[in-house]
Write a structure and sequence with these properties.
The chain has one domain. It has ten helices and no strands. The protein starts with a helix and ends in an 11-residue tail after the last helix. With 256 residues, it is mainly alpha-helical. The longest helix has 28 residues, at 95-122. The chain crosses the membrane at residues 6-31, 43-60, 72-92, 104-123, 135-156, 163-185, 191-212.
């Protein structure tokens, strides 16, 4: 019975994570249509690609038995993120942006290759291999889930949820919760810990959304002119932060 429940949570985690991986499609359609990456940052896509590669490797049977569902979704995510990176390279707004993106992609490939080679050639014992790959995937996953912290800070500062879409926040919470339960049932701390962090941060985003969803745009009156100027300035800076700050687990980095 426990295995059936674990499988159900794994499948739900796959479906929700796929939604999160595909959430940047409108942004990349805009990039292709305008043939320019404009001011969007390519860092989140490279970081998410690395996270997916490490997690997919960790879920393989010869590294971590009985975690194939971890490999399936992260393998799909790695393919999707790789397409995003290629599009970013093709339509980079400046040669400097393209060179930076190429450097980041090369670093991602080097880190993944190093982890994979060391785990296969230097660590012949199953537990040692699982420990190393699990730690690498966990650190990267926690970084992915923590990436929206700058957006959450912006929400508190501006009292506006404009750059923190509800569906994306809900998706992060549900995805983190599904994989957290999956990790608990499988007694796998390398799945449970990072996704427990993701579930908690997703819940915080939902709480912030509930608090500030009606705070902006309703105060017409005596400070209208001053507020408009301040909002315009904040919107410009927040757009930059939203584009650069990422979204996720990762995977929630694109909000346009």
């Amino acid at each position: 019975m426990e295995d059936v429940v674990k499988f159900i949570f794994g499948i739900s985690g796959n479906v929700i994570a796929l939604f999160l991986f595909l959430s940047p499609v409108p942004t990349f359609w805009r990039i292709i249509r305008r043939r320019s990456t404009e001011d969007f940052s390519g860092v989140p896509y490279n970081m998410t690609l690395l996270n997916c590669l490490l997690s997919a490797w960790y879920g393989l049977p010869f590294v971590s038995p009985n975690n194939i569902l971890v490999s399936t979704i992260n393998g799909a995510g790695a393919a999707i993120e790789a397409v995003y990176v290629v599009i970013f390279l093709v339509f980079a707004s400046t040669p400097r942006t393209r060179l930076r993106m190429l450097g980041l992609a090369s670093a991602v490939a080097a880190v993944f290759a190093a982890v994979a080679l060391v785990s296969m050639l230097a660590l012949h014992h199953g537990q040692g291999r699982k420990l190393m790959c699990g730690l690498a995937a966990t650190v990267c996953s926690i970084c992915m889930y923590a990436s929206p912290l700058s957006i959450m800070r912006l929400v508190v500062k501006t009292k506006s949820v404009e750059y923190m879409p509800f569906l994306l926040s809900l998706g992060v919470f549900l995805c983190g919760t599904s994989w957290f339960v999956y990790g608990l049932l499988g007694r796998d701390p390398f799945v449970a810990i990072p996704n427990g962090c993701g579930s908690f941060l997703g819940a915080v985003q939902l709480v912030l959304y509930a608090i500030y969803r009606n705070s902006g745009g309703t105060s017409a009156g005596k400070q209208q002119a001053g507020d408009d100027m301040e909002m315009a300035s904040d919107a410009k800076s927040s757009k930059k932060v939203a584009d650069d700050g990422g979204g996720g687990a990762g995977k929630e980095e694109l909000m346009v």
